[in-house]
Amino acid sequence: MALLSFSAASVAAQIAHARGCSTFLPNWNGPVGQPALILIVGTGVHLRSNGIDGTTTRIVTTERADPSYAFAEGINPFRDPDWMAARQAAFRDLTGQFYTDILDDVQMLIDRGHDTIRLATDGHTIRVFLRRAADYLIGGTYDVPSGLGGTFRVILRDASDTHAVVQNFGNCEDFDEMLPYRVPLDALIEIDDRRAA
Q1: Per UniProt, which keywords does this protein have (predicted)?
Q2: Domains 2-129 and 133-190 share a fold
C-alpha cells in the first residue's frame, strides 16, 4: 500500500470547483450527478474536480496535467525531478483514473484545519488515511495481513508516518521466528478492528 500526501489548500480548490459546477464528468458506470474528486495516475499523480465548466475538457487523460491540480507530494511533474520513480513506487506500472468517493471525508478534514490530506491506496481502492505514527503504541499488539489470506499477530517495534516495523508474536508454527519486517502503516489493524484483511 502507498500513502499519498496532498496540500489541503490545493484539494480545497478542486472541491470548490466541483461544487461550483452543475454538470460532471461521467464515471465508468455512466453519468454522475454530484461533485467528486478524481485521482489521476499518469503524468504525475493528482486529484482533480469532476466538474465541467467552460474551462474543463470532457476527456480526462493521464497524459496531460494542469499545474492547478492538486498533486501528490513528490509526484508533481512540474516540480519534482524524480516524480516518475515516485509514481512507480506507489503504483508500479499502473496508470489510469480512479473515481473516488472521498469528497465529504476530505472536506471534513479541511474544515477541521488539517493542512495535509493523506490517502491510502493499494492500487485498486483509495481511502482517506487519518492516522499518524503517534496514534500507534510502540510495543503494542496489532494484526497485519499475512499475504496468505489471514493475519499475523505482531508487536509494533517502530513507526514512521508511512511504515511500521513489526515482529510476529503469538502466532502458530514458526512464524514468530521471522525477523522484524516493514509493513505500510495503514496495514496495522487494531485487535478489535473488524475490517477485512
Answers
A1: Signal
A2: no
Phi-psi region of 139 (alpha: psi -120 to 50; beta: other; left: phi over 0): left
Residue 120 has pLDDT above 50, yes or no: yes
pLDDT at 197: 39
Place of cell 522484524: 180
pTM attached to this predicted model: 0.69
What's the DSSP call for residue 2?
Answer: E
DSSP 8-state symbol, 179: P
Q: Are 42 and 65 in contact (CB under 8 A)?
A: yes
Retrieve residue 43's grid coordinates.
503524468
- Tell me the mean pLDDT in the region 102-124: 86
**CATH code for the domain defined by 133-190:** 2.30.30
CATH number listed for the domain at residues 2-129: 3.10.150
Residue-wise DSSP of 8-27: HHHHHHHHHHHHT-SEE--B
The answer to whether 102 touches 119, Cβ cutoff 8 Å, is: yes
Domain spans of the chain? 2-129, 133-190
Look at residue 62 and tell me whether its pLDDT is greater than 70.
no
